[in-house]
Every structure is written in structure tokens, then in C-alpha cells.
Amino acid sequence: MHAWPASEVPALPGKGRDLKIHDTATQGTITLAPGPVARIYVCGITPYDATHIGHAATYNAFDLVQRVWLDTKRQVHYVQNVTDVDDPLLERAQRDGHDWTELAERETALFREDMTALRMLPPQHYIGAVEAIPGIVPLVERLRDAGAAYDLDGDVYFSVESDPHFGGVSHLDAEAMRLLSAERGGDPERPGKKNPLDPMLWMAARPGEPSWDGGSLGRGRPGWHIECVAIALDHLGMGFDIQGGGSDLVFPHHEMGASHAQVLTGEFPMAKAYVHAGMVALHGEKMSKSRGNLVFVSALRRSGVDPAAIRLALLSHHYRADWEWTDAVLEDAVARLARWRAAVSRPDGLPADALVEEVRAALSADLDAPAALAAVDRWVELQLAGGGDDESAPGLVSRTVDALLGVAL
Length: 409
Ligand code: 5CA
Ligand code: ZN
Prior knowledge:
Elements (H helix, E strand, L loop, with lengths): L19 E4 L4 E4 L5 E6 L10 H19 L3 E8 L4 H10 L3 H18 L7 E4 H17 L3 E4 L2 E4 L15 H10 L16 E5 L15 E3 L1 H12 L4 E7 L3 H16 L5 E7 L2 E3 L2 E2 L10 H6 L4 H9 L7 E2 L2 H18 L8 H12 L4 H16 L8 H13 L4
Parallel strand pairs: 3-4, 3-10, 4-5, 10-11, 12-14
Antiparallel strand pairs: 1-2, 6-7, 7-8, 8-9, 12-13
Helix pairs in contact: 4-6, 6-7, 9-10, 10-12, 11-12, 11-13
The structure holds 5'-O-(N-(L-cysteinyl)-sulfamoyl)adenosine and zinc ion (ZN).
């Protein structure tokens, strides 16, 4: 699939700092020291009801990761998937009487437009589940041949007991895993499974549903977790720097993906850091497609909201916090954007070299975007109150905010 156009990232004077980030698997903050090319996989959308503010907040977090790395003069190899065939997508298409491929294409196109408007850097490889099937089938066959997968009435399941590290991403107990599995696409109640948590790798063709040639697996379609593993291993290989997503992906998705990859390769771990963004809520409940309590980026844009203000609204919360979208959050962001623009539109101003370092320090410390905004706010207030006579300062602040926060002033 094609991704979306990249906005330019201005180069800043000096050099950025290495990223310290909270890793769900080790339950602590680690300093990542990638080579010249940092590698990141971020779980993409299931293309219906996109792009809501919760999605945008999660992609904003991983956009900051890239901007920190680019500022250290590294290249970034970024891969993202599109879950363009899965139960919830098929159910939605069925419910609304739409063709599922048209629904997926339309929503993916909208997502690209929203990502472009928000100045999110695009992945180099943007891969759909359907186009990944030829790579998924041999992985499932290998797991089966290694005794880590088994057949149940034509469906193929992964045996979680085949991975000695199973549980090492989420650290949940069996009961919590069982509840989350039922809630998030698993089938712990299905009779005949070796372990109720075992996830499906390959689903045999069902009447009325799309299916593909699965070689020795028979016709069917892939399970969700193996989709991301196949795409990540194909384009990044084992031991990449970050696997990212919202906190609702910790279990089962990232736990199962880690297990699949570790059993397949005999290496551990698949990602050096498992990084998770908090959940955005609306009216007290997690913004989710199933609940329907959604605020869409495209609807805000249509109503005339500047995408830079949406971006500032996302940045005003720490990525790991759960937070609530309200009108006030957006109003504050609109006001902040106007102040920042007024401050940088002056012909000269307060020297900003220290500000560049403050923003760098904030973001490299577990992506503390609110602290970065506070640092810019301080410069802006002094600048609006009178400023100084450094002609290069407004331009440097614009470039800093653009390069590190993705906000065009
Ligand atoms: N296609 C899978 C990942 S492989 C998927 O979870 N798709 S999704 O469309 O449901 O979500 C896309 C991303 O947005 C995921 O990282 C998910 O964790 C994140 N996300 C979904 N809802 C919210 C929310 N309310 N707040 C923050 N992030 C969210
Ligand atoms: Zn995924």
C-alpha cells in the first residue's frame, strides 16, 4: 500500500539526545541506543471509523519518537500495518451493507489524509494484512511444523505454552488474560483448545466470508497477531527498537505477537521496548469504535479547526496518561496556537538556543510533550511581553516546534 506524503523536518543546530522511554515489558524506563538506523513498528488502524482522536493521540506519540531520533541524526525505518481484513471490519461492512474492501479503502484513504494534515511522518512500509498473506502462511506452517501450533476443526491455533517467555510483555495473571482475551478478539470459551488463551493463527474459510489460498493450511484468512509479526519480521527483522500502540494492545496483541516471533526465531525479545500510549476518553468512557463515542479528526478539520491546533491538543497530554477529550482541551490548544504564531511573527526576539535544549530534554525524557509545551509557552510569554533583538530567534523557535513537535507555525 502507499502511505502518505512526508512533511519536511527542519534540521536544528547541535544534536538531540538519546530517547529514554517506558518499556511495558521491563516495567521501567530504558535508554534506547539504536544504530544509525532506528527501527520502529507501530500497529496501524483497522480501517473503519477512522481517524478518531484516540487513534491520533497514539500516532502522535510515535511520531514524537521518530522526531527525537531524527534530531540525533539517525535515520528511522518505520513500518505500520493496516488490518484490512478482520472480524470487526467484516462485521461493520455487513451491518451497513457495504462491500468490505470498499469500506477498508475509503477509511484508509481518510486516515492518510488525516495523518498528512496532522504532519505525522509516514512509514516507509505501509502494509495491509491482505497483501501480507503470502508471507504469513509460511510462518504459520513453520509454527505448526515446530509443534507450536495445532489444528482445531480446520482452524490453526498457536500454543502459548510453546513460549517460555509468555506473559513477559503484559505480566498479567491467567484470569486477567482470560478476561482481556474475551474482550479483545480472542475466544477463550471455545472447546477443544489446549489453553483457553491460545490465539488463532489461521482461520479456515467461513461461508460468505473472504478467504485466500493458505497452501497446506487450506483456504482461510490470517489471525490478527501473526499479521503484525509477519510484517514486522519481513521489514525490520528481530530485535527492532520499538513496537508501539495504544495500551489496549498490550494484551493480547503485543503479548501474542512477541510469543509468535520468539518461537519462530528462537530469539528474544522481538522489540527492545514495548511502548504504549494511554487511552483517550469521551464523556468518561474510552473512545472506541464499538461504543461509538468518537470525535473524528476529519470532522474537526471540516468544521474549520486548524490541524496544528488538534496536534497541540494531543501534545498537551503525556502520551502514557489516560485523558478525556473536551471542548476546553481544543479551545486551549487554539488559543496556544494563536499565541505561539503571534510570538514567532515578530521580526526579532529573545534568544532561543536554551529553548531548543529544553524541548530536546523534555522529549528525550519519556516523550514529555507537556513539559516541552510549557518551555515554549515560557519563551512565548516573554517574547510577547517585549522580547529581545535576536533576529534569528523567531525562525529558530518555528523550526524547533516544527522539527520536534510536528507543529507548523
Ligand atoms: N489494527 C489494530 C492494530 S494491529 C488496531 O488496534 N486497530 S485500531 O484501529 O483499533 O486502533 C489503532 C490504534 O489506535 C491502536 O494502537 C490502538 O491502541 C489505538 N487506539 C484505539 N482507541 C484509542 C483510544 N481511545 N485512545 C488512544 N489510542 C487508541
Ligand atoms: Zn498490530
